[in-house]
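Morning!

This is the sequence you dropped in the shared folder:
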Amino acid sequence: MSLTYHKAKNQLVCHYCGYTRYLPAQCPACENRELRMQGFGTEKIEEEAAALFPAAKTERMDFDTARTRSAYEHILADFEKGKTQILIGTQMLSKGLDFGNVSTVGILNADSLMNIPDFRAHERAFQLIVQVSGRAGRRDKRGTVVLQTSQPAHPIVQAAVRSDYKGMVSLQLEERKLFRYPPYYRLIVMVLRSRDEKVLKDVSLLYADKLHVRLGERVLGPVTPVITRVQTLHIRHILLKIEITAAVAPIREMLLSVHREMQEYPAVRQLLIHYDVDPA
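The structure's back. Tokens below.
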């Protein structure tokens, strides 16, 4: 898991476990002192906007600047009153805000919303794009929305441009039925964690084999998730796709039976295992 650079504190921060460290003066591997920042976050965008529009006051709203309710409300009040002309923020800006003086909204790197490895990624991308677009030209004024994407012909982008909610839903339901996702199937994600990566790999394979004997093609994995490790714990997932019409009690009993069977193997005691049913 990569760390995110926070310039204000000159720190590298893990947004999953909270680990922090100061930015090293040189590369710990090759000792090269020429470190370059890649990508962009709200701090980087704020710098670029201030350089491009020096006459405008720029403000940033993210986890660092809006830690308290008073700080959050102060940022919004300044923008509403016109004291701030450019407001840069994370997805929190899309939630239920109503400004009467917004003429232009920009959505940067919309592709990142659609490329998340989650079956709900396209639905959530559509929702976010439409919500953020709704911030521009509200009330009696017409606004402009600028969407940055390398996939302008993508069905989700086109549906968002047209505000075609029904079309988006129809497309998503068709894909979910084809690939066995909710609402046609119920998902159960087994999350297995261990400090020992080899033990985790071996035990998760054995666990999946025993489940596969009972559930067949309903079992996928084990797989290494996008977040492969948090702090000292390595992570693997086993995914179960169960028909929505299947009774819950027999599935629960089967999982308990496999869990008891797995206790015969001493290595399983080195794992933390939990079940995420219908993951959010």
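Headline: The first strand starts at residue 4 and ends at 6.

More detail when I'm at my desk.
O.
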